[in-house]
Amino acid sequence: MKIIEGGVTAAKGFEAASTAAKIKYQDRTDMAMIYSQVPCECAGTFTTNVVKAACVKWDQQVVKSGAKAQAVIVNSGIANACTGAEGFGYCKDTADAAAEALGINADGVLIGSTGVIGKQLPIDRIVAGVKALAEKKNDTLANGTEAAKAIMTTDTCEKQIAVEIEVAGKTVTIGGMAKGSGMIHPNMCTMLSFITTDAAITKEALQKALSDDVNDTYNMISVDGDTSTNDSVVLLANGMAENEVITVDSESYKTFAEALHEINEYLAKKIAGDGEGATALFEVTVVGADTKETAKTLAKSIVCSNLTKAAIAGHDANWGRILCAMGYSGAQFDPEKVDLFFESKAGKIQIIENGTAVDYSEEKATEILSQEEVKAVADVKMGSESATAWGCDLTHGYIDINADYRS
After folding, report:
1. Lower Cβ count inside 10 Å, N or C end of the chain?
2. What does UniProt list as catalytic (predicted)?
C-alpha cells in the first residue's frame, strides 16, 4: 500500500468540482460534485439517529435499490433535515438536475447535505449550482481539493487522502474526502465521507468492507456526544482499474479492506482532531481487555468524557477523570489493576499503576499534554484485546461556535 497525493479524483475515471451557490455562506464555495465517467457499484452506511435528513433517506434508497451510481451532489450550509415531504422532494429535484446536466440516470445520483437543521433548501440555487458544477468538473487534484473545501461547515481545513494498492498485477486506487467538526459522536457521527475507487469489486464485497470498517473508524470518534441527523459514508467503485473482480472470498479482498481502513481511519482522525474549538487530537487506546467490545466501550467512554476533554484542554494530567469514565462505561474491569500512560511527541509517562498514582513529574506530564496530538493508554490486564478511539479537547471555542451557529 502506498499513500499518494490526492482525494476523490485520484482513482481513474473520477472527476470533481465546486461552486459558490450562496445557499447560506456568501463568501465561499458551498456545493461540490463527484462524478464517475462510468456507472459505479455503491455502498453506504448512515446515521443511527431516528431523525434522519432527507438526503440520508434518499441515499439509503439508492444504495438499497442496487442502482449503479454515477454522481454525488453535496451542499453545505443547510442540512435538509426535519424538512418533511418538501425536503425529500428537493432531493429528487437535485437528482433530476444532475441527470439532465450530466446525461445520466437520476436513480444513480447520491446527495449529501450539511448545515442548519430545519431550513428548506433554496432549490433554485441548488439547481443552478448543479449546472455550474457539471460545467466545471474535471479529474485534477486541484478540483478534488476544492470539492473537499466546499463541503466544510465549521471545519478549519479540508480532509482528503488517497492510496494505491496492487490487485493481481493491476494498480488500484482509493481516494476519499470528508467533513466533520461538530455534532460528532460514535455510531455515525455532522459527518460526511465520500470515497471513490477504480477497483472492480462486487457490490456485496464493497458493502461488507465498508460496513465492517466503519465500526473501527468513524464509529470510534467523538467530539461532543451528539449523533447527527445527516451522517453518511458513501463508497463508489467504477471498475476502471480493470483488475480481477474482488469478491468477499477472493485473496484480494483483504488487501482492499486494509487499504479502505487506511482511508477511513485517516479521515476519522482528521474529523476528531478538527473538532469545533479543539486544539488537540485526543487518542485513547485500551489494551489488555478480555474482549474487543470491552476495549471499545472503555476507550469510547474515556474519549467522550467532557471532564477528561477539559483536562486535556488545560494540559492537566487529571487521571481520576479517566478512571471515573472507565468506571461508568458499563464494562467490567478491576480498577485496582489499571495502568495508565500519557504520550505524545514530547515523550511518554506513566501516571498510575494498579489503580493508584505513581511518582511522576507534573511538569513533564504537562509538556506531554501540550502537544497537538495526545494519547492515553490504559492497560486493564484482563486479556489480549485492544481498541482505539479518537476525540479532541473541549475548549471555550466550542461554545463560541455553537452558541450562534445559525447566525
Report:
1. C
2. 190
